[in-house]
Amino acid sequence: MDAILNAISTVFGWINSLGVTVMLPIALFLIGLAFGVKPGVALVNGLKVGIGFFGLNTLLYSVVASNIGSLASAIVARTGLPLSIPDVGVGLHFSITFSLAAAAFMIPLGILVNIVMLALKLTKTVNIDLWNFWPWVFSWACVQGLTGSPVLGFLAFLFTGVISILLGDRQAEYIQKYYDLPGISFPHPFSSFFGLLALPFMWAFDRIPGLKDWNVDIESMQKKLGPLGDSTVLGFVIGFVLSIIAGYDLIKALQTGVIVAGILMLMPMMIKILVSGLFPISEAARKMLTKRYPGREFYIGLDCAVGVAQPSSIVVAVILIPITLILAAILPGNKLLPLADLAFLGFWVATPMAMFKNNIVRGVIYGTFAMAISLWMATNIAPLVTRLGLAAGATLPAGSDLMSMLTIYPWAWFTSFIASLFSGGMH
Hints:
Shape: globular
Mean pLDDT: 86
Number of helices: 17
Number of domains: 1
Helix content: 55-70%
Radius of gyration: 21 Å
Strand content: under 5%
Largest sheet: 3 strands, parallel
Structural class: mainly alpha
C-alpha cells in the first residue's frame, strides 16, 4: 500500500511541477476532446492559452517583479520605515504548502470537490485553474500546523475551495461584463475574498454624492484628454513620478516610466491571445453541458491573473504602492514592512475592479482599505508562518525574528484564526 501511495504521490508531484503554462494546455486539450472539438483545433487553442499565460506570467513574475519590485524596494529604503516583520514574498507560501504531504494530491482532491459541487448543483463553475488548488492546501498546511490535526487541516482545505468557487460564481457577472470575458469566472481564493469585501463598497460608492457620478476609467480619460489619456501615457507618468519619489536619477526614471507603460500595453495583448484560445473550447464545453443539462448555465473558472492584467487593475496597483507604504507606517498594530509583494498589488483588485466598472478612483479607495486588512492579517499570522516556514527549510532575513507575506491568503488566515481561538493563539 505504501508503494502505491508513493507512486501516486510521485505522479501527481510531477504533474504539479509542470506549472500553469503546461497544465492548462493539457487540461484544455483533454476538455476540448471530451466536448467534441477536433484534436488539431483543441491542440492549437490549448497552446494559445498556455502561451497567453506564459506571457502574463513572464510580465507578472519577471518584468513586474524585477522592475516594479525594485522601485518599491527603493521607496522603502528611502522612507526607512521602522517595521520589524519583513515581507519575504509569495515564495514562503510555496515552501509551507509543498512541505505538506497532501500537496501531492491537491489536483485530484480539488477536481473531486468541483465535481461534487457540480453534481449537487451548488456551482456553475468548471474550474480549470488546476495549478491554483495550492492556496487550498496552504489553508490545510496552516491549520494542521497550528492544531496538529490533519482532519481540521482538510476541513480548512475544503472550506477554502468551496467558498472560493461559490464566490467565483456570484462575482462572474461582473467579470464577464466589464472585462469582456463571456462564460468566465475567477474561483481564485485571493480574488474571491477581496471581491466579497468589495460588496459594501459597491453599495456605498453608488450612494455617496459626488463620488457616485465620478467615473474615472481608462476610456473616459482617453475621451477627456485625447492621446494624453491613453493608458500607456498614464503608465509612463505614474512610473516616472514614483521613480522620482524613489530617488532614481532622470535616466532610470524615464526607463522605468517606459517599462510601466509597456506593461499596460502588453498585458492586454496577452489576454487577447489567451482568450482567443480559450473561447472555442469553453464555448464547446458550455454548449454540450447546457444541452446535456437543460436549464443549467456553466462557467469556465480561470486564474484571476487575467483580471490583474486589465489596464485599470494595473493602474490601481501601481498607485497603491506608495499608499501601502504610508499605511504600513501609520496603521495601528501593523508590524509588517511591505517589500517583496508590492509588485503584485493587482491581485487585490483583480475582481473588485470589474465590480467597480473599472473605475480607478473607486479602486484606489477600496484598495487602500484592502491593503490595511492585509497588513493586519500578515502581522497577526507572522508567528505561525515563521514557524512553518522554518520547518519547511526557509530562512529568516538577517536581523529578524519573524517573517510574513503581504500576500497572505485571506481564507488561510481566516481558517487559522478560527482554529487559533481553540488552540491558544496564532503561534
